[in-house]
Amino acid sequence: MHKFAELNSAQAAQLFAGYCAAQGLNVSAVVQRPDFAELYGDTEQLGAIEQEFGRFVQQPEHPRYQAAAWQLSQPAATESSAALPQMNILQWWQQAPFTCVILLLCLLVYVWQQLDWRSSSAALQLTEPAQLWRWFSPMLMHFSLTHLVFNLAWWLYLGRQLEQRLGSVLLLNIALTVALVSNAAQYFIVGPHFGGLSGVVYGLFGYFWLAGRLNPGQGLHISNGLAGFMLLWLLLGFFDLLWVSMANWAHLGGLVTGLLWAWLLRHQSARSIPASH
């Protein structure tokens, strides 16, 4: 991705990026503040993007841009309600298979936990460090439906974006590295009885937060509001002010590992995302 313009209106930048998406052009609007935004475009499409940008600058109020924004905001208007979920699931699997695999594994393990808590815990918790899979398997365990839904919502939101932008192999490497470090931190400092995907989620959050500053062209960003929420949740856990038991050291270990990955990949280019039809 290559930065080709700066605008003094975040709304205008997002409008142009939306129009380009409707035209099959890969453009990202990186909003720094309401009066300043950067535009990044696919290097291979840069000529066509700059040509469209020239037209936009001359006539930003042209109805074609509002029409494209409306079209993107109504993607399912012509689809039946029965076909829409199937289409979304198929698209998700095609665009982010590793994200979907982890999602399904967490759901299957949760069902196993409800049917046989003792055997699932004995097989997956980090109680036998010599068995190498146990350094990763706790990330698949969740101890309540709220715990499961919270973590999977964040995993889908962050993991899918990262996999689309950087590929399945990099997401696999990042997720497993973060899981290993976060589980090890919790194990050595507290003990083996913990579980959840939240260490990996904090790793992805750390990646998005720093990558958005070091390499905006990757198109991976997290808003200040969401970043503040995640950091507040981390602090509340360490001060034991929450109503649930938290794997605080797993969260912190994941966050630090995600930040390190973002620094290591600070020059990594994002791949193009094909336009949906």
Automatic annotation (TrEMBL):
Major site of localization recorded for this protein: membrane
Keyword set, alphabetical order: Cell inner membrane, Cell membrane, Hydrolase, Membrane, Protease, Transmembrane, Transmembrane helix
Start and end residues of each Peptidase S54 rhomboid domain: 130-266
Subcellular location as annotated: Membrane
Keyword match Ribonucleoprotein: no
Transmembrane segments: 96-115, 135-157, 169-188, 194-212, 224-243, 249-265
SUPFAM superfamilies named among the record's database cross-references: Rhomboid-like
Molecular function GO labels: peptidase activity
Residue ranges of coiled coil: none
GO BP term, pick one: proteolysis
The Peptidase S54 GlpG peptidase N-terminal domain, residue ranges: 1-75
InterPro entries: GlpG_N_sf, Peptidase_S54_GlpG_N, Peptidase_S54_rhomboid_dom, Rhomboid-like_sf, Rhomboid_protease_GlpG, Rhomboid_protease_S54
Membrane topology: Multi-pass membrane protein
UniProt entry tagged with the keyword Methyltransferase: no
Protein name: Rhomboid family intramembrane serine protease GlpG
Organism: Rheinheimera aquimaris
Gene name, Swiss-Prot/TrEMBL: glpG
